Amino acid sequence: MNEYRIETKCVQGGYTPGNGEPRQIPIYQSTTFKYDTSEHMGQLFDLEASGYFYSRLQNPTCDLVAAKIAALEGGTAAMLTSSGQAANFYAVFNVANCGDHVVASSTIYGGTFNLFSVTMKKMGIDFTFVAPDCTEEELAAAFKPNTKAVFGETIANPALSVLDIERFANAAHAHGVPLIIDNTFATPINCRPIEWGADIVTHSTTKYMDGHGAAVGGCIVDSGNFDWLAHADKFPGLCTPDDSYHGITYAEKFGQGGAFITKATAQLMRDFGSTQSPQSAFLLNLGLESLHVRIPRHCENGLAVAKYLKNHDLISYVIYPGLEGDKYYETAKKYLPNGSCGVVSFGIKGGRKAAEAFMGHLKTAAIETHVADARTCCLHPASSTHRQMTDAELQAAGVPADMVRLSCGLENAQDLIDDIAQALEAIR
Questions:
Q1: 296 has a pLDDT exceeding 90
Q2: Read out DSSP for 356-408?
Q3: Is the dihedral of CA 108, 216, 290, 368 positive or negative?
Q4: pLDDT digits over 215-261, tens only?
Q5: Contacts of 369 (CB under 8 A, 6+ apart)
Q6: Tell me, what DSSP letter sits at residue 175?
Q7: Average pLDDT, rounded, for the chain
Q8: Eight-class DSSP state of 242
Q9: pLDDT over threshold 80, residue 389
Q10: Cα–Cα distance measured from residue 297 to residue 276, given in angstroms and rounded to the nearest whole number
């Protein structure tokens, strides 16, 4: 499958049916699996044999879909989770424990920011947030002796800043830690962070990968490139024996290409159980089969809407990395040469009240706590996804109080522009 181009991987990756087997990935809707002997079951629990014994840890449907996403991203192993939030939590918690530290971009999605700055802080993990366009000196100063990872988003939600992945990867590797990139908005169609030095890639598959608002889910992909044993003192969870699995050392037994995902499955999924259902994985796969067809249309609509808004007298600013003159336009040309995403963020003259009034007049675009859907939707981040932030935190995250996030779907671009036009005239 590796020799195929990405469009073919979207359609055929992860699963090759044998003679007389189902053409579509089967839904293994079962919590448990039967074995003939207790000895065989014991081998599974000891990680001495491959197979399935309980769907809280692994399920064949989920693994087949995860394998497709790994192929799309160019990774060696992957696992599905119940949500993108769970994927980001597992990815970080798999390497950082109580007393450790992580460097993260300040413009990450508000839910992830809250996960890091509040919930994981209560677990004893400290985070330092840096601007995505910080100086080399500021980035280097963020690291501490106990830093265990660097985290960022290819395209930030909803700030739409584009991370200089290569620069952050070089900084992470200079300090002996992996770079974790949330690639939800770009998807592997427009950017494959592993090619730029990222070690772990996460997704909220709820967004473009599913693409139809049908199933919540997440995914973690391991590049297989980070040498855990070379930094064994930093990552004891991967490089020292795990007593809960009879002394297995993941990095030694499963190698660079399998250690990270095996540990995340065997330990974290076992204990936290944030697994994706087989039914959701099946729906996700249907979305993946058309991902390469849908993403270009989302980008075309996003750029058309951004160009219209840029010239409107009631719009105070437009943020879209594919728009010439945007702060991240040049960075986007490097990492996203084929397009960024369908999401456009902009400000309405008149501030927060004007933004809320504008959204109330939209007819085609629906107000939803969602993004990256086949149907156009919008929301006011400061009063929804980012409402837990202070004004200072909102500013640092690149989410002003007057910002509207519009996710352009697959409709006709002129219809979307006409809807925006009438809503703006209604509040004039």
A1: yes
A2: HHHHHT-SSSEE-S--S-SS-EEE-GGGTTTTTS-HHHHHHTT--TTEEEEE-
A3: negative
A4: 999 999 999 999 999 999 999 999 999 998 889 999 999 999 999 99
A5: 379, 384, 385
A6: T
A7: 94
A8: B
A9: no
A10: 28
The answer to whether the beta carbons of residues 245 and 48 sit under 8 Å apart is no
Concatenated DSSP letters of 19-39: TTS-SSPP----SB---S-HH
Hunting for tokens 């660079």 — which residue is that?
A: 256
Q: Give residue for tokens 């608002």.
A: 213
**Residue 229, amino acid:** L
Q: Which residues contact 250 (CB under 8 A, 6 or more apart)?
A: 228, 237, 238, 239, 242, 259, 260, 262, 263, 266
Where residue 3 falls among pLDDT bands split at 50, 70, 90? confident
Rounded to whole angstroms, how far apart are CA atoms 244 and 229? 20
β-pairing, 147-153 vs 179-182, is: parallel
SS3 133: coil
Secondary structure element (H or E) that encloses residue 127, with its range: strand 126-130
Query: Looking at the predicted structure, is the pLDDT value of residue 333 above 70?
Result: yes
Instruction: Give the residue carrying structure tokens 């499963």.
Output: 254
pLDDT at 40 over 70: yes
Reported as a pLDDT band with limits 50, 70 and 90, residue 183 is very high
Phi, psi of 362 (to 5 degrees): -70, 145
